[in-house]
Structure formats: C-alpha cells, structure tokens
Amino acid sequence: MDRGAYRERIAEVMAGSHGAKVGYPIELRELEVIRTEQVGSGLLRVTFGGPELAGFHSYVPDEHVRVVFPDTDGALRLPVKDGLSLEWPAPRPISREYTVRGYDADAGELDIDFALHPGGLASDWALAAEPGARIHIAGPPGGVVVPDSYDNYLFAGDITALPAMARWLERLPRTTRGWVFVEVTDASQEIGIDAPSGFEIQWLHRGDAAPGTGDLLEKAIRTVTVPDGQNVYAWVAGEAGQLRPIRKWIRSELGVGSKDCLIAGYWKHGIANFDGEE
C-alpha cells in the first residue's frame, strides 16, 4: 500500500460495518525524552519529542510501536528502511512493543505509558529515564481500524491494556455505550478515564494474586448481556493464557464474529518478549 492509499483505506473501513487491519509506512525514529509522569501507581508516562517525530502516523487507539534497546553487550543494532517497511537484522535486536497512548502533532509530542513491574527491561528504562535521554522507536505499522457506529463496545484487560482502552474511550463519540472491565492490583492503579457517559466502568481488584492468574476478568465479562437487536464490538487484551476462555465465551456465547472483535495476548508468563497472540 503506498503512502496515500492507507488514508483512503482508513476512511473506507470507518464508513463500513466491521473492523479491519490497515497498514501504513513504518519508520524508525530517534527520539528524546521530554518528561515523565506517574499515572496511577502502575503506569509511567514517558513523553517523547525531537525533530524526527515529524510525520509520525497515529490513527487508531491500539497502535503499537517498538522501543529498541541496546544488546546486552551495549551494542545498538537497528533495523534499516526497506521501502515502506523496515528490515530487521538477525539476530533480532532487543525491543519491546508498546501502545501509542497519545500523539500531538502540533506540540510534537508522543506519549507512551509503561506498565511498571520489577525486573522489566523497558520498565526499568522508563523509571531511570530523564529529560534528554534518547531512544529509537519503530512504527507503528498500522492498526485495526474500527467504525464508531456499533451499538455497544466491550473493553476489558489488565494494566498492560489500560493505555489502549483509555485512548479508545477518549476517542469514541460521546453517545457511545458499553462496558469496561480493568483488572488491577488495587485502587492505587485506577486512573481517570474520559469515557462517554453511557459506559459502565468496573475496576477489578486482584489483590495479592499474581498478574495474569485467576478468573476475575472472565467472570466480570460473563455478566455482559447485549440488548436484542443490537451489535457489539469487543476488544480484550492481557496475559495470553488468561484470555483463552474469554475468547471462547465472546465468540460462542456472546456471538461476536471475528470481524467484530480483537482479543490479543499482550504478554505471556515466562516469555520476556512475547510477540502477541490473537
């Protein structure tokens, strides 16, 4: 797809009745940290800027970029531009995938919310980052474009999914209705969300249980009942194994087709750089 065609494709999907993936040109940019800000106790927002941010693309709420880190020996290996995409060297450089939390073209600022957890490579980097620190960011490669004409929307996930859900809710028409379920440790991880008034938001407190375990999220989602004659778009993300029964219930019991949902494993127990699972 050429550099202009993706805009036409986005408009086409938005005017349709189902979501669809739309790709656009992938760039590699060296950006600098402008500031950091704690968002609840579980997220740290890092705001990036710099001249290479010009021309950044951001159109859908759950887009992702890859933050590229030096190898364990300190060497920095980077992908190179290959047409509208990037060619990654082998072995693949160390990188982590993160949601685009916000992009302000006028201000020249890109926000990424890092989920904080002990021993996490990107989490530790974000905690130590100071204004002026530089990092390479690749992408986004596109995202799933979803019409805003569904009768209802269902959003659910853990704290790794919270940045995307918050962006979703900020951008939906104010008349939109639906459900939001967010699994967090406790009330300290709850954040303010600018959601349409027709959304029911439930914060599910996990307590001492380990992240990505238990069925708290699944039980909450199972309470959803879609009114007769109405449709729903479902977006759920979190630990891959925890999502399997949820995916099955949404598809079979709630009756949501594959074109009307995105259920994505953002991380997986025991895998440091999980590439995602849908």
TrEMBL record:
Name by which UniProt lists this protein: Siderophore-interacting protein
PANTHER family: FERRIC REDUCTASE, NADPH-DEPENDENT, NADPH-DEPENDENT FERRIC-CHELATE REDUCTASE
CDD domains listed in its UniProt record: siderophore_interacting
Domain FAD-binding FR-type: 26-147
GO molecular function terms listed in the Swiss-Prot or TrEMBL record: oxidoreductase activity
Listed InterPro entries: FAD-bd_FR_type (IPR017927), FNR_nucleotide-bd (IPR039261), Riboflavin_synthase-like_b-brl (IPR017938), SIP_FAD-bd (IPR013113), SIP_fam (IPR039374), SIP_rossman_dom (IPR007037)
Species of provenance: Nocardia speluncae
Pfam families on file: FAD_binding_9 (PF08021), SIP (PF04954)
